[in-house]
Structure formats: structure tokens, C-alpha cells
Design brief:
- The complex is a heterodimer of chains A (198) and B (738).
- In chain A, 40% of the residues lie in helices and 13% in strands.
- Chain A is built from seven helices and five strands; from the N terminus they run H-H-E-E-H-E-E-E-H-H-H-H.
- The longest helix of chain A has 24 residues.
- In chain B, 27% of the residues lie in helices and 24% in strands.
- In chain B, the strands form seven sheets. Chain B has a seven-stranded mixed sheet with strand order 3-5-1-14-11-12-13, with helices on both faces. In chain B, strands 7, 8, 9, 16, 17 and 18 form a six-stranded mixed sheet that branches.
- In chain B, strand 21, helix 13 and strand 22 form a beta-alpha-beta unit.
- Classes of the chains: A alpha+beta (198), B alpha+beta (738).
- At the A-B interface, helix 3, helix 4, helix 5, helix 6 and helix 7 of A face helix 2, strand 1, helix 4, helix 9 and helix 16 of B.
Chain lengths: 198, 738
């Protein structure tokens, strides 16, 4: 059946959870109690997510990814679900200055963090400089990978406003495009101006 | 899989009827120009660089794809699929799933005793309030299978003792195609090459998976579908659900890639519609990545055992090929061969080999990359035998020059840009592990289109709306439509509103075979031209001139000696807008493109890793509408060719026929650091009218890369993808890497 992937992903998350507890045990049982995640679920639990500066209260099962919570519960659909296992980058969001694959982070883990998506970049009808650069350099075709590439580029330029081509390529290696817009994407990343440090 | 899919999948692939093997020899005459609305002698917008008009929506995340559609009360569907390549159903029990939390509808489409023929074949579906509940419920379905012997590879299927899995046989032998005198051809050959070439199965891997949102309103269905054909998909829903076409509306405002795999509702669309009906709620059913790899199409593999002869003077004499390949469970795998070059005496016999995997579908230039790879690598081997430069050798064996057969002109142009004269003979003599090499190849494609219809309205406020039931699958169709309308009405692109991707708009064909531009642009030109004429007729009496005395400027019109703005002219319409229908007409588009590509690669013979450094592409597509998006089409095609050459491959487990890399980390595709420098020269042929550009640039890249690798390393890789393991094996066989 087709569910093996979901099963193994949950197993993966479980493993991660067990791993952090094991580490904590070494540090002392009291620390473990303080650091280990409190047991939640399996039913829906209320959570609060801060996305593009707005607080959202919602109820999700603990196994729901940040990406799915945004897309299916909050109708924040800018970031796309493509591979759903951390390979293609279409779901890239920025959390505290660095990129994350939101398909590979649980929504419950994203609480208390400032999550940024492509939906929050433009100011009304004025595009963010990176979005404008993608349009000007034809760094998009079908557009399904574009939100991920835009977020990866924003994260790069906020850290390093003048990347070399090699640095830009490296920063965008976590994103895949099937139409083959990469030539325009690189031009966009190297020409976007006026991206202030986030 | 329904038979409509099968037909459609093979439609795009050109037959290998011998008469059409080298169609360039019978080049069509220059098409007559359209009498009433010819393309302008001097264009204001056509051929310039215009940024795509839907760029801001896509870059801002505001573009809503089918995957993004949310409807009130919407629930989620998932499909129940066969885990086996070949099995017979003994029993199925879905009682627990039906009662599972959140489940609103459940369908089982297989009966005990029936068989499945490939992993992932649809056997049922259910819908639940959340995706997680749907997945949970699927796992509660208990199925007993009688697992039957399966065929996982063409070799297994072709063995005489193989179990008979397919009816009437595991293979289907075509009829031999012959031309000339093969024996005489080989007699005249000074050298022959006798070798076997092969290409892999690749999957489309569209980023937006197949799927849709279905919503019923009584007996009427609205479906937001990720499709390359809104009208064809409407027809598919009506047929599959046995309801009138008038009751179906298909909407595809934006779609995340199809590459030939999305032409109908497919099983998932029909199941989604049935679930929505049963649950009395809108249902979203988008496939996951594994389902996408397994069940939504692929490019068939190709194998060719070729014997070819060349005379001492470098003229090709004979070509004799036995070919085979697999398009999966019961689907064809033919491809054009030999490709482009003139073999005066030739014979070819193709056999379709069936295996227990998902069926092939048309994929970006179906058949051509396979035929191109086999022929072009062979050409380099033959050139070495007669000690000729591979490009000179090609020039000697091309069909005559014609508007759709310009290779003899394009090869020297590309050679200049790749610095072909710096090329060394086969095998880089430079010491050290890094070897550099150059290679070249040629491509052809049709790209003609017909049949598109459109409706244009000009309002009294000067606004222009063009409606057409075509779709923009990422090519830039929306943008070039607006450019043609703006050019015709003397407006700027942002002044034109394009509405597409809706089966309620006038009919336009599906977007396959690079036919969209050639089908839709003439409809835009004619319909906008008719709207302009209708506007002139309406306002002429008020301006006191004859309609024939009104001419269009840029943002204005001139009536006799008076020039008034477009807005003021439209204001004269009063409350009734101009409203006209138009359609594709002859004389504004054509078919038949040609192009060449050159590759510059670097191979590390210690690791076997190839880096494609640069690709040069010289390509035509008739009248260029938007130079910017046409160039991007070339970049995209070339990058897909690089993937085909060195990265991607569908790998099936040889025992179970299950795909072992149904994801995006082990199904390899180029990342940003793998992208070569790409130099595109688009040759404008305005006198030919509009021709499609989506597929042609995707054809030749893999062959050029393979030849460049051969030139670098001195070993011949006759099988793509050229992965490090294959390269190191071949180098070892050739005497090691020292």
C-alpha cells in the first residue's frame, strides 16, 4: 500500500524524539524532564503558530507537518507540497533567519517561532525585491517551485547581500525545478538588490 | 488505465513509417500568408523581451493551483492501490475503513478474481475529513492477494521461458520497415559499426502531482484539475461519469507542470468525482510523490541493436536496426530511427516489450530523445572510422537545406560559439584525471497547431478581454497571447486581460506536442483583428468617416485627419461592448523546426563524475513572439536533457517490479550547482508564422553530452544515464584510468 512512507516518517520523528531523550538521560533525569517533549496527542491539540507576523490558533494532530497545517488548516498556500520528504525545497520557509523544509517539521514544533512564507513578502501589490528579480529574469515557468526558490534566495541575501555565483548556487541547491528555470533563478539571485538583513 | 489514455499517449509519438523517417527531405513550401490579418511587417512587441504577465502572481504565492484550491466543507480523498506488480484479488474487506473516524465515502473498484497488472494500480478510494484520517482508514482495509509471476525487466519479458503475463503475448513485434537495398549498402561500406544502444525509463516528475478538487452542484460538476487540456478533461469526465459534457466545468488557472502526462481526468479524477458525489461534499484528491512516479506515465525505455555502414568518403550507406523497449503494462515504445541523417538503405524492426509497471505517456518530445541518442552516438563512432571531424561528417550526411531543415546552417553557428576548433580527437590527451570533451547533435520537431477558438470583448472604458479555453502549463502562453492582442490593437501588454484555463471559454486543443502557440496565436491575431474591425464599424458613423479610413496607432486611432486616444474611441461604443468570436486560420502558423546543440563536458576519470560545463543551442521556432520566454523554454529543455543524460532513471526492483526510487532524492535531477552555462541562439523565421518551441530543445542535449563524454574519455557509453558506475566500468574495460 501507499502508506509506508507516512508510517516511516512518523517512525523517523519518533526516533528523533527518543534520541533527544536519550541524550538528556546522560545529562540527568531532572534535565530530561525539563527538556524532553511533553507527551501530546494522539488526538488534535490546540496550537498557536506565528506566520508572517500573524498569530493563528488552530487544532491539529501532533503528526501534522507545519506545511500541511499552513496549507490545509490556515489556507496559507504559498509554499507547495511536492516531494513531502525534504528533497525538493518547494515548501521552504524561513524561521529565525534560516531555511527549513516545512514538510519535515511538525506544526507543534513550530510554535513560538516566527515563521515566514512567500505569502508575507510582498507589500500589497509591491513585490519584494527578490520576487521582482524572479519576474524580471524569468526565473519561473509553471511557478510551482518558485515560492521555495524565492524563500531560499531571501534567506541567502539577508545573510549575504552580495553572493558570488558559487555561493548562490550552493544556497539554492536544496531546491529542485522540473521546468528548468534555474538559469533565470540564478540571475535573479545575483541581481536582486535592496534586500535588508532580516 | 483507460484506453483513451493509451491512445493519447501514443498520439504524440511519431510513427516510424519509413516514408516519414526523414520528413525534412520533403520540406513543405513556404506557407501562404494570411490575407486579412497577416503578421505585421514591422512588429512593435512581437520578438521583444516581455516578462511573463503572471510572474507576480506566481512569485508572490498568490497564484492558486488546483493543489491550493480550498472549498467550503472540502474533504480529502486517497486512492487504494495494488502493492503488487501482478496479482489476483482473493478477498477485500473494507468494513472497518468505512466506519473509521472521519470517513465519508468509500469505493472499491476491484472484484475478487480480477487482476492488477502493475504496482500502484487503482483498486479503490475513500474520502475523509482530514488527509491523516484518509490515510489511516486506507490501512484498515484488509486484502488477500494471490501473487502472480511478474515481469520486471525487458530481458525477463523477452526470455522464451518467461511466464505469459500479457495477452496475447509479452511482446508485440511490429512490421519491418525497409527502404533501398540493404545488402548493396553494406557492400559499399568501407567500415561498419555493430553495437547496442539503450536509454532508460524516466518519469515526468511534474512538481504539482496529478489530481483535482471536485465539487457537485446537483448534477453539475466543477473540477479544478491539474491538466494540460481543460476541454479534453471535460470530455473525459463526461464520458467516465456518463453525464452530459454540458454539466461539467473544468478549471485550470495555474498548473504545476505536466510535460505530456496530464491530458484527462485519469482514474484519480473520476474517483475524486465519484467520492464527492457519494460524500455530498467537495473532495480534494492530489496524488503523493510515489503515486505520481508509479502511475502517471513515463518515457519508455529504448534499446537498439544497430549495424551501420559508411563508405570511405564518409557517406552513410546502410542502417539495419532491431529495436525494442518498454512502455510498461501493455503500452507501446516506438520512436523515430534513424534520426535526421540520410541512410539511403535501411531496415528497422521494432518490438514493444511489456512489463508489469505503470504505462508510458507522451513525455516532452516523445520518441525523439531516444532516436536522437542512438543515432548521434552512432554517428560519432562512424566518423571516427573514416577519420572525419564529427561535425563535418554530419554536414556530409544531412538532408537538403529547407526552412524546417536548417542544420547545415546551424552547425557552423554553434561550432563557433562552443569553440569547436579547440576540439581534440576522441580521448583527451591531457594528463591528469580531468578530461575535457566536446560533442554535438541535431534535433527536429513538428510544433504545428490548429483549431483554437477565442472570444474578444472591447468595453466602452477601453478594456480588452480575450477568452480562450487554452491553458498556460508554464510555457508563457498567457503572456504571448496578451502580446499578440496588444500588438494587434495598438495597446500595451498590461492593457489586455487574458482569461484561459476554463472549459466554459471557447474551445482550444490540449497543450501537447508543442502545438499551443501555433494553435492559439493565430486565433488571437484573427479574433483581435476582427474585434478591431468591429470597433471601427461601430464608431465610424460617429466620427463621420468610413470604417476603412480608420487606422490603429499606439494607444490611439486615426480617423481621416483626426487622431483620438484608444479610450476616447472606445467611449463611443456606449453601453454595448464589441463582442466577437474568432478562430485559428491558415497562414499565421506552421510546423517543422530544426536545431543543433553542442556540449562541453569535464569528466573526472577517477570518480566517473561528469560535469556538463556548457551547452550551446541554435534553434528556430518560426516567428518568435516573446524572445524572453522562448529562451527560457530552451533553457528548460536543455536542463531536462542534462537530467536525461547523466542523472535520472526509474529503477525497478528486478524481483518485484516495485520502483525503488519513487521520490525526489534517489530519483536524481540536477540541482542548481549541476546546471551548465547555457548559450541559446534563437533564429527568427518570421515569414513562417508561429511554431511551438516547448519540445525541440529537449531532444538533442543528452546525445551531445554523451558524445562530449566520449570525446573526453575515449570510451563509448552507449547507455544513458551515464552514471559514474557505468563510466568507471567502461574505462576499466578499456584498460584502466591510467
Amino acid at each position: 500500500m501507499q502508506d509506508e512512507k507516512d508510517v516511516s516518517r512518523r517512525d523517523f520523528f519518533k526516533t528523533v524524539g527518543v534520541g533527544s531523550i536519550a541524550t538528556a538521560v546522560v545529562a540527568g533525569v531532572r534535565d530530561a524532564e525539563a527538556q524532553g517533549p511533553a507527551p501530546v496527542g494522539p488526538g488534535e491539540i490546540p496550537i498557536t503558530l506565528t506566520i508572517n507576523g500573524q498569530r493563528h490558533q488552530l487544532s491539529v494532530e501532533p503528526r501534522v507537518t507545519l506545511l500541511d497545517a499552513m496549507r490545509t488548516r490556515l489556507e496559507i498556500t504559498g509554499q507547495k507540497r511536492v516531494c513531502d520528504r525534504g528533497a525538493c525545497g518547494a515548501c521552504t520557509v524561513i524561521i529565525e533567519g534560516r531555511t527549513y523544509y516545512s514538510c519535515s517539521m511538525l506544526a507543534i514544533e513550530a510554535q513560538g517561532k516566527n515563521i515566514r512564507t512567500v505569502d508575507g513578502l510582498a507589500n500589497g501589490s509591491t513585490l519584494h525585491p527578490v520576487q521582482q528579480a524572479f519576474c524580471d529574469n524569468d526565473g519561473l515557468m509553471c511557478g510551482f517551485c518558485t515560492p521555495g526558490f524565492v524563500m531560499a534566495t531571501v534567506a541567502l541575501l539577508e545573510k549575504n547581500p552580495n553572493p558570488t555565483p558559487e555561493q548562490a548556487k550552493k544556497a539554492l541547491d536544496g531546491n529542485l525545478c522540473r521546468c528548468g528555470t534555474n538559469i533565470g533563478v540564478l540571475k535573479a539571485a545575483l541581481s536582486a538588490k535592496g534586500v535588508s538583513r532580516g | 488505465m483507460d484506453s483513451a489514455d493509451l491512445t493519447r499517449a501514443t498520439e504524440g509519438a511519431e510513427g516510424s513509417d519509413l516514408k516519414t523517417q526523414v520528413p525534412e527531405v520533403q520540406a513543405p513550401p513556404r506557407p501562404p500568408q494570411h490575407e486579412k490579418y497577416p503578421w505585421p511587417e514591422k512588429s512593435r512587441l512581437l520578438g521583444t523581451r516581455v516578462s511573463r504577465i503572471d510572474g507576480p502572481l506566481k512569485a508572490s504565492g498568490r497564484a492558486k493551483y488546483s493543489y491550493d484550491i480550498v472549498r467550503p466543507g472540502m474533504i480529502y480523498g486517497r486512492i487504494l492501490r495494488s502493492p503488487h506488480a501482478h496479482a489476483r484479488l482473493k478477498s477485500i474487506d473494507a468494513a472497518a475503513a468505512e466506519k473509521a473516524p472521519g470517513v465519508k465515502a468509500l469505493l472499491i473498484t476491484i472484484k475478487p478474481g480480477e487482476k492488477v497488472m502493475f504496482p500502484g494500480e487503482e483498486i479503490g478510494a475513500l474520502a475523509a475529513t482530514t488527509e491523516q484520517q484518509a490515510a489511516d482508514a486506507l490501512r484498515m482495509i484488509t486484502i488477500e492477494w494471490e501473487v502472480l509471476p511478474a515481469l520486471a525487466t525487458v530481458e525477463q519479458s523477452m526470455r522464451p521461458e518467461a511466464p505469459q503475463v500479457f495477452t496475447p503475448a509479452n511482446t508485440r513485434r511490429g512490421t519491418a520497415q525497409e527502404d533501398g537495398d540493404l545488402a548493396a549498402g553494406f557492400k559499399n561500406a568501407a567500415f561498419t559499426v555493430d553495437a547496442t544502444y539503450s536509454t532508460q525509463v524516466q518519469t515526468h516528475t511534474s512538481l504539482e502531482t496529478h489530481g483535482c478538487v471536485c465539487e457537485w452542484n446537483g448534477d453539475n460538476l466543477t473540477a479544478w484539475v491539474s491538466t494540460q487540456a481543460v476541454h479534453g478533461t471535460r470530455e473525459g469526465f463526461a464520458q467516465g461519469l456518463k453525464i452530459p459534457q454540458a454539466n461539467v466545468r473544468v478549471i485550470t488557472e495555474f498548473m504545476g507542470g505536466g510535460f505530456g502526462s496530464k491530458f484527462g481526468p485519469d482514474m484519480q479524477g473520476l474517483l475524486c468525482a465519484r467520492l464527492a458525489k457519494a460524500a455530498n461534499a467537495p473532495v480534494k484528491l492530489m496524488l503523493d510523490r510515489k503515486e505520481e512516479h508509479l502511475t502517471t506515465g513515463n518515457r519508455p525505455s529504448a534499446f537498439a541493436k544497430v549495424k551501420a555502414g559508411v563508405a570511405a568518403d564518409g557517406k552513410l550507406t546502410a542502417f539495419d536496426a532491431t529495436t525494442w523497449g518498454t512502455g510498461g503494462a501493455g503500452a507501446g515504445s516506438d520512436y523515430p530511427l534513424p534520426y535526421i541523417y540520410v541512410f539511403p538503405n535501411r531496415k528497422r524492426m521494432h518490438t514493444d516489450v511489456y512489463i508489469n509497471s505503470g504505462q508510458q505517456r507522451a513525455m516532452r518530445a516523445p520518441g525523439h530523445p531516444q532516436g536522437c541518442f542512438v543515432t548521434e552516438v552512432l554517428m560519432d563512432e562512424l566518423a571516427d572510422h573514416v577519420r572525419m571531424d564529427p561535425m563535418e561528417f554530419r554536414l556530409k550526411n544531412l538532408p537538403p537545406l529547407a526552412p524546417n531543415a536548417m542544420w547545415a546552417t546551424y552547425f557552423p553557428m554553434g561550432a563557433e560559439r562552443i569553440n569547436w576548433k579547440s576540439r581534440h580527437v576522441t580521448g583527451d590527451p591531457t594528463p591528469g584525471p580531468i578530461k575535457r570533451g566536446l560533442g554535438c547533435s541535431a534535433n527536429r520537431w513538428g510544433g504545428a497547431g490548429t483549431g483554437a477558438r477565442a472570444h474578444c470583448e472591447i468595453g466602452s472604458d477601453g478594456s480588452v478581454v480575450m477568452r480562450c479555453g487554452t491553458q498556460d502549463i508554464g510555457t508563457g502562453n498567457r503572456t504571448i497571447m496578451a502580446m499578440v492582442v496588444a500588438e494587434t490593437l495598438g495597446l500595451e501588454v498590461p492593457q489586455v486581460t487574458i482569461e484561459l484555463g476554463d472549459s466554459n471559454h471557447p474551445f482550444a486543443p490540449g497543450s501537447g506536442g508543442s502545438t499551443t502557440a501555433a494553435a492559439v496565436m493565430p486565433a488571437m491575431r484573427v479574433t483581435a483583428g476582427k474585434a478591431r474591425d468591429a470597433l471601427f464599424e461601430r464608431i465610424a458613423p460617429q466620427l463621420g468617416v468610413a470604417a476603412a479610413d480608420i487606422t490603429i496607432g499606439v494607444g490611439n486611432i486615426t480617423a481621416g485627419s483626426r487622431t483620438i486616444s484608444w479610450r476616447d474611441a472606445c467611449r463611443l461604443l456606449g453601453t454595448v461592448p464589441v463582442s466577437v468570436d474568432g478562430q485559428w486560420e491558415r497562414g499565421l502558423s506552421a510546423g517543422g523546426t530544426s536545431g543543433v546543440q553542442f556540449a562541453d563536458v569535464e569528466v573526472d576519470i577517477e570518480t566517473g563524475i561528469t560535469r556538463v560545463k556548457k551547452i550551446v543551442c541554435v534553434q528556430d521556432c518560426g516567428l518568435i513572439v516573446d524572445l524572453k520566454t522562448a529562451e527560457t523554454q530552451c533553457y528548460g529543455g536543455i536542463i531536462s536533457g542534462v537530467n536525461y543524460a547523466v542523472f535520472e532513471e526509474r529503477i525497478l526492483d528486478r524481483n518485484t517490479a516495485n520502483m525503488v526510487n519513487p521520490n525526489m532524492e534517489w530519483y536524481h535531477m540536477a540541482g542548481q550547482s549541476d546546471i551548465p552555462e547555457i548559450d541559446v541562439v534563437l533564429v527568427d523565421q518570421p515569414e513562417r508564422g508561429v511554431i511551438g518551441i516547448g519540445e525541440p530543445p529537449a531532444v538533442a542535449t543528452a546525445a551531445a553530452v554523451a558524445n562530449a563524454i566520449r570525446n573526453a574519455t575515449g570510451v563509448t557509453l552507449r547507455s544513458i544515464p551515464i552514471t559514474p558506475d557505468k563510466l568507471l566500468t567502461e574505462l576499466e574495460r578499456a584498460g584502466g584510468t591510467n
